Amino acid sequence: DDPTFKEDFVKFQDRILELDLKLAAILCQAFDDCHNLESVFKLISIVGTVLDRPKIREEFTGKYRQILYMIDEELSTCEDIYEMQMEHYRKDGHIFVDRSAPPVTACIRWVLQLTNRITTPIKQFQTLQHPVVQSEEGSSLVVRYNELIRKLKEFEKSIFDKWAVTVESTIEENLDKPLIVRKRNSSELVLNFSPDLFSILREVHYLRLMEIAAI
């Protein structure tokens, strides 16, 4: 047997290990430079199966724990936003929303925005090929996420149903009124289109744009 082959093979393995350690250091630094979950998951997606290399995985695995902390922080923020809005709703009968949209549409849009904000990182987290996903902490995050989504869906349904139940009677009541009337003490004709009907039409228009299934 040629002893030089074994020597060369050992040197080759040492060189590969050295390269893996350097790459692991670069990836860990890149992770530390990520300032939000979107950039973290983008980094992991770009790197791909490189993270499966044993030495790189060993060096990088601690970063998955940081992902847990980041998701926990984001989820807590979303939970706080929800609770703040619900407290305001119970107190004043409405939530803080975009005033450029009709009230029902604005509420549903807020629900969808908050849902998307937390759903994206949770779904990306669940695709990670790492034991942290199935850990107690990871499972707890998913449970909290599901509970928040349940509450948001219930709120969305209550807002929509509360509005929808009044639509038919409002339409019937106002369609019985003449569309054009004469001003009192004047011969001038004016449009008598109900503001309530206009409000309903505006809501329907925006809800259709959002592709709300019940519309």
UniProtKB/TrEMBL annotation:
GO terms for biological process: microtubule-based movement. It comes from the Eukaryota. GO terms for cellular component: axonemal dynein complex. Residues 3-212 form the Dynein heavy chain tail domain. InterPro entries: DHC, Dynein_heavy_tail. GO terms for molecular function: dynein intermediate chain binding; dynein light intermediate chain binding. PANTHER family: DYNEIN AXONEMAL HEAVY CHAIN 12, MALE FERTILITY FACTOR KL5. This is Dynein beta chain, ciliary. The lineage of its organism: Eukaryota, Metazoa, Ecdysozoa, Arthropoda, Hexapoda.
